[in-house]
Amino acid sequence: MLFYDRMQFAFTITFHYLFPQLTMGLSLMIVYFKWKFLRTKIDKYNDAAKFWMKIFALNFAMGVVTGIPMEFQFGTNWAKFSELTGGIIGQTLAMEGMFSFFLESSFLGLFLFGEKLLGQKLHFLTGFLVFLGSWASGYLIIATHSWMQYPVGYEIVENGKFVLTNFGALFSNPWLLPSFLHNQMGSVITSSFVVAGVGAFYLLNNKHSEFGKLFVKTGVIFGLVSSILVAFPTGDLTAKNVVKHQPVTFAAMEGIFETEDGGSEIILIGQPDTENKKLDNKIAVPNILSFLTYQRWDAQIKGLNEFDESLHPTNIPGLYYAYHIMVGLGTIFIGLMLLAAVQLFRKKLYNSKWILWTIMFMLPFPYIANTTGWYTAELGRQPWLVYNLLRTSDGISPTVSSGNTLFTLLGFIGLYLLLGLLFLMLAGKIINKGPETTKLN
Amino acid sequence: MELFWYIVLMTMLTIYVILDGYDFGAGIIHLFFAKNEKDKKAITNAIGPFWDANEVWLIASGGVLFFAFPTLYASSFSGFYLPLIMILWLLIFRAIGLELRGQIHNKMWEGIWDKAFGISSLLLALFFGIALGNVVRGVNLGMVTNGVSAHEPHYFFLPLWNSTFSPHAEHLGIIDWFTLLLGVIGVVALTIHGANWIIFKTNSDLNEKLKKVVFNLNIVLLALVIISLFIWHIIEPQPFHNFLDKPWLFIFPIITFTGLFGIFKVKTFKKHGLGFLFSSLFLFGGLTSTVASIFPKVLPSTNNINPDLTVYNVAAHEYGLSVGVYWFVIAALLVGVYMFVQYRVFRGKMDDVGYGEH
Q1: Where do transmembrane segments lie in this chain (chain A) (predicted)?
Q2: A114 and chain B: CB distance < 8 Å anywhere?
């Protein structure tokens, strides 16, 4: 049954993506620490890199084991979709396996265990290759995702099969670059908040204070840059793709039920009432949405009323909330990081207790923002698997009964609950123990 | 073009079985023969830096199957739904067993993850053997009952077993006595293979004992292989017709038996890698002989209504397959370089690498 198939994919992908978002951002920051060590020869940076490698290794293992089910589920639960589109999305997914997974997995072992064997420069190189592999993986996944949102380079032949006609189009897809950069910046935000949050934890506890300062400082700088870049230009460009190619999705995201002449307001808060096609308790600012979208105060934004209901996203309130939570949190991230950066510049950050507390408590929120961002993209594409061409209900496996899907969904829930607990326990142990100081020079 | 990708896919799957096969085998040895901490350490060290990259061969093979043969991917992954998801769960258990064991030094913690690692390795070896059995036995494509297809001709679904455990039942199960036999062959062969890897990569005290284990298990393996050859005709009336038509294919069974008989000399090898080489030959020959015997079928139909799935009726279209060759060749060369670096850095005996101590 469609419901369980969707629930299983949603659950397993949501849980899975908690890990790669840290992997991708953290690999960049570890490479930074390692690079800083090579340049300054100050041991602190190498110790910091080694400390975060421990978290990275644990996180990476979780990402790998929860990632394998994703590639299998296209076939197990979405057989018809795979059969019809495999000749196209199979390209980018197979490329991910061949280009990035081999790169990551071969060099991760060397990176984790090869520092003495390889020497510092080669060790840096292995770290860089792991970073490269993880970002390449993100790129190829988003190339796949972009094709589903905005199909290009294809032809539909007998039996509804999608056939690739232009390989290059998969990578020059206008959807790809903005989404990829937006996603990667989201991932750097997660790692920045994790690094800064752990640093704040050390400072507030008066232990490992040297590292606490380094982590807070690095986290705030990376966090400020990525929080700004995630909104502008990457988020802005991504949203403009949605306006242009999926206007009905955009209307639902923003909660615009009716087209308004003379410009649309931007809705900050409110509860969509889809039965009566209105928004309750709304707080809105007039004309801002038109300006943000078209740079004209009175530009017309199409409301949901302009589209046939069969084309509406299937879960309008879910989509609306996902989008608003993402945008709301993104705004808070910019504010907090800006404030922290100002205090850092004034050399007052390490003593500003309340900012440190806030940074520490904000640690989980980038995970929520990334997750709701992906929900916006995925719920926004519904009811389609391939936008406007293949409906989600036409993509499921024809022979797998709902009882079997529910069985495996329950199994995944149980198993992932265990994985999540183990991860938190072990990550907590590593963080509580803290970085070790070594003398290399 | 289909043929090219078929060879690529089979090569990748064979590499996967040879590489992750020694990981599974090491897990089985770990479960039954590692008595003390030193033995266990030797075993996990021997596979430590490799198993993760070895598993990538499975994912990458899955990716190539998806892209080159989407119909086969869709049909078989949905049809073998339950065992595939269970394989995923086992892979997860196995991986976290290996990764988490060393994180906390506590006897009970270590014991739990040792068992998770060992038991899931054993079950994976069994499941992969059973999977091979299902592919050669075939399935009820289209789910035909009383001469009528209930689904499109390339879709099916199999429960884990039916009450008769017979490979001839109208409604087949994944586990029947024939596929189970192949599952057991899988377990025995991979145990030998894993033991050979440990002998190759460590100076463990366990090695002398393992040589005896390998020798004895190889007698069992030989017996099982002979039995399976005699009963093969029960599931396929003319099991060797491909070989008689194209005699050059006999190279594959010859490789199989070279490997099988080579393993018997395990006690006399001066070079420790030889045993591993022979068990790799056995796995390579065994897999290639099996798929060659049903070629060009990739999943036979057990009814007379719907045709077999063959290399030619499950492939993606020509353009995609051709353009894929370019990136695949580049990627394959890179993978070759990575593997060279990896096995070069971690060459020789692995006793002192200290895997799992973060």
Answers
A1: 6-31, 51-68, 88-112, 124-142, 185-205, 214-232, 320-342, 354-377, 406-427
A2: yes
pLDDT tens, position by position, B65-101 = 999 999 999 999 999 999 999 999 999 999 988 888 8
A325 belongs to a structural domain: yes
User: What is the residue range of A236's domain?
Assistant: 176-400
Q: For residue A311, is it within any domain?
A: yes
| Torsion A69-A71-A74-A76 (CA) sign | negative
B chain contacts of residue A11, beta-carbon cutoff 8 Å: none
Chain A positions touching B62 (Cβ under 8 A) are 71-72, 75, 97
Chain A residues within an 8 Å CB radius of B52:
64, 105, 108-109
Q: Structurally, how many domains does chain A consist of? A: 1
In whole angstroms, give the CA distance from residue A76 to residue A405. Answer: 9
User: What mean pLDDT is reported for chain B?
Assistant: 90
Find residues 384-403 of chain A whose CB sits inside 8 Å of chain B: 397-401
Per-residue pLDDT reduced to its tens digit, A141-193: 999 999 999 999 999 998 899 999 999 999 999 999 999 999 999 999 999 99
Q: Do A102 and B60 touch (CB under 8 A)?
A: yes
Answer whether residue A246 is part of any domain: yes
* Helix extents (H) in A260-315: 288-294
Q: How many CB atoms lie within 10 A of CB B173?
A: 18
| Residue type, position A39, single letter | R
Pairing outcome for strands B297-299 and A266-273: unpaired
Size of interface A-B (CB pairs under 8 A): 225
In sequence order, the β-bridge partners of residue A273 are A278
Query: Rounded to the nearest 5°, which phi and psi values hold at B224?
Result: -65, -40
pTM (2 decimals)?
0.94
